[in-house]
C-alpha cells in the first residue's frame, strides 16, 4: 500500500463516526468514575448536620459545585477554542480526584464542602468532549453515544464501586478516591484517542452550519431571537434534570427502601436496557436529513418519554408495577426526555435556523438552571424535613413532572415550527 493510500486510510479511520462515538462514550464513562462513586455508600453511621442527613449534604455540595460550573461554562464553553482541549480535560479530572483525596482526609462534617470542589471541574468536561463532535452529519449518532454514557456510566460506576467495596472492605470515606484511581489510567488513553478526531468537513459545515466560539454579543442576540422557545425548553429541562438527578444520586436509597439491600448489580440491570433503547432511538435520527423534521421528532421523543415516566409511576403507586420494572421504565421515560437535549435538540436547532454558534452555550445555559433547581428541591426536602421517603417523594414528583413536561413540549414544538415557517416561508416569498 502506498504512503498516500495509507494516510487516506488513517484519516478515514479517525474520522469514522463509530470511532468518534465509541471514544466519546468511553471518555465520559471514565469521567463518571470521579463523580458518582460516593453515592454508593449510605453514610448512615455519620451524624446528620443541622438535621440534614450527611449523604444529602454531600449530594447537595457536589451538585452546587456542578451548578456553579454550568453558570461559568455558559461563557467558558461558548468561547472555547479548538486546541489544547485534551489537556484541559486531564487537568479538570486531576483537580476533581485530588478533591476526593482531601474528602477522605478531612473528618466529617468538615469535608462536605470539598465535594463542591470535586463537582466544579467535572461540570465543564461534557462541553469540551462534545465540542470535538458537534456540527457533523453524524453528530446525532455520536452525540447519542456520548449522552447515553450518562445512563450506562452511572450504573456501571456504582456497580464497580460497590463490588470494590465488598471485595476489599474499603471504608465509605475512602471509597470515592480509590474508585477514581481505577478509572484514571483508561481515561488517559481515551483522552489521547479523543484528540485524534479531525474537525468537521466542508460538507458537514454545509449541512449542519459551521460551529464557532460565541462571544457575549452573539449570545445575547441568539437569546433575543429565540427567547420564548428557549425559555420553554429551559423549563422542561429543569424538570428533567431535577428528577434525573434525584434518581441518579439516591437510587441506592430507593433500592434500599424497596427491599433490595446489598445488590449493586441492580444499578446495571436497570441501566443497560435503558442505554440500548435510548441509543438506538436517538442515533436513528442520523437518517433524518431535514433539520426541522429532526427537531420536531426530538420533541416527539421527549413527549413520549414524559408519558412513559408518568404512566409507569402511576402503575407503580397503584401496586400494579413491581419496583424493578418501575425503576427501569421511569428511567427510560426520563432519559428519553433528557438525552435529546444533550445531543440532538440544540444541535438540530442551530442547523435548522442556520445561526453560527455552538451547542455548548445552549446546553450550559440549560444545565445551570437545571442544577440550580435540583439543589433547591433537595434542600427543600432536607431542610424543611419533608417526611417522605425518597421513593415516595420521587414517585409523586414524577407524576407532576410528566403532566407539566408534556404541556411544555407541545408549546415548544409549536413555537419552533411557527418560527421556521415565518422565517423561511416569508423570506421565500
Q: What can you see in these coordinates?
A:
The protein has about 425 residues and is mainly alpha-helical. The chain has a single domain (about 10-420), classed as Up-down Bundle (Growth Hormone, Chain: A). Helices cover about 75% and strands about 0% of the residues. The protein has helices at about 5-15, 15-30, 55-75, 85-105, 115-120, 125-130, 140-170, 175-195, 200-210, 215-225, 225-255, 265-285, 290-315, 325-355, 360-385, 390-429. Helix 2 (about 15-30) runs antiparallel to helix 8 (about 175-195), helix 3 (about 55-75) runs parallel beside helix 5 (about 115-120) and helix 11 packs across helix 15. It starts with a helix and ends with a helix. The relative contact order is 0.14. Residues about 5-10 have low confidence and may be disordered.
Topology of this protein?
Blueprint: H1 3-15, H2 17-31, H3 54-76, H4 85-105, H5 114-122, H6 125-131, H7 139-168, H8 175-194, H9 202-208, H10 216-225, H11 227-257, H12 265-283, H13 291-317, H14 323-353, H15 359-383, H16 390-428
Helix pairs in contact: 2-6, 2-7, 2-8, 3-5, 3-15, 4-5, 4-8, 6-15, 7-12, 7-14, 11-14, 11-15, 11-16, 12-14, 13-14, 13-16
Amino acid at each position: 500500500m502506498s504512503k498516500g493510500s495509507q494516510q487516506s486510510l488513517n484519516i478515514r479511520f479517525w474520522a469514522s463516526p463509530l470511532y468518534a462515538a465509541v471514544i466519546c462514550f468511553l471518555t465520559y464513562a471514565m469521567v463518571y468514575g470521579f463523580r458518582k462513586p460516593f453515592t454508593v455508600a449510605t453514610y448512615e453511621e455519620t451524624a446528620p448536620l443541622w438535621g440534614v442527613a450527611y449523604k444529602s449534604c454531600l449530594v447537595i455540595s457536589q451538585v452546587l459545585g456542578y451548578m456553579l460550573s454550568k453558570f461559568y461554562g455558559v461563557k467558558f464553553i461558548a468561547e472555547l477554542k479548538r486546541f489544547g482541549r485534551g489537556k484541559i480535560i486531564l487537568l479538570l479530572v486531576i483537580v476533581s480526584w485530588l478533591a476526593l483525596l482531601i474528602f477522605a482526609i478531612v473528618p466529617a462534617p468538615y469535608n462536605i464542602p470539598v465535594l463542591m470542589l470535586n463537582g466544579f471541574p467535572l461540570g465543564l468536561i461534557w462541553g469540551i468532549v462534545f465540542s470535538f463532535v458537534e456540527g457533523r452529519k453524524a453528530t446525532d449518532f455520536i452525540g447519542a453515544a456520548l449522552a447515553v454514557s450518562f445512563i450506562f456510566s452511572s450504573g456501571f460506576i456504582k456497580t464497580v464501586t460497590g463490588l470494590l467495596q465488598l471485595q476489599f472492605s474499603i471504608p465509605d470515606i475512602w471509597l470515592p478516591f480509590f474508585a477514581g484511581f481505577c478509572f484514571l489510567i483508561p481515561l488517559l488513553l481515551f483522552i489521547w484517542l479523543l484528540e485524534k478526531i479531525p474537525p468537521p468537513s466542508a460538507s458537514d459545515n454545509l449541512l449542519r452550519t459551521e460551529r464557532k466560539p460565541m462571544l457575549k454579543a452573539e449570545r445575547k442576540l441568539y437569546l433575543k431571537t429565540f427567547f420564548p422557545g428557549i425559555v420553554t425548553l429551559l423549563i422542561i429541562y429543569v424538570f428533567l434534570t431535577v428528577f434525573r438527578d434525584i434518581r441518579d444520586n439516591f437510587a441506592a436509597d430507593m433500592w434500599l427502601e424497596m427491599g433490595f439491600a446489598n445488590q449493586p448489580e441492580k444499578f446495571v440491570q436497570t441501566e443497560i436496557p435503558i442505554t440500548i433503547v435510548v441509543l438506538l432511538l436517538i442515533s436513528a435520527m442520523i437518517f433524518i436529513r431535514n433539520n426541522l423534521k429532526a427537531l420536531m421528532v426530538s420533541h416527539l421523543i421527549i413527549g413520549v418519554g414524559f408519558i412513559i415516566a408518568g404512566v409507569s409511576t402511576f402503575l407503580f403507586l397503584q401496586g400494579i408495577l413491581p419496583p424493578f420494572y418501575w425503576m427501569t421504565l421511569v428511567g427510560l421515560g426520563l432519559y428519553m426526555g433528557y438525552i435529546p437535549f444533550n445531543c440532538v435538540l440544540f444541535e438540530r436547532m442551530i442547523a435548522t435556523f442556520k445561526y453560527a454558534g455552538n451547542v455548548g452555550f445552549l446546553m450550559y445555559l440549560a444545565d445551570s438552571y437545571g442544577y440550580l433547581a435540583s439543589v433547591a428541591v433537595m434542600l427543600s426536602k432536607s431542610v424543611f424535613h419533608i417526611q417522605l421517603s425518597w421513593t415516595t417523594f420521587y414517585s409523586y414528583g414524577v407524576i407532576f413532572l410528566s403532566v407539566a413536561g408534556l404541556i411544555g413540549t407541545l408549546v415548544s414544538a409549536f413555537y419552533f415550527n411557527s418560527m421556521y415557517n415565518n422565517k423561511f416561508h416569508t423570506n421565500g416569498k
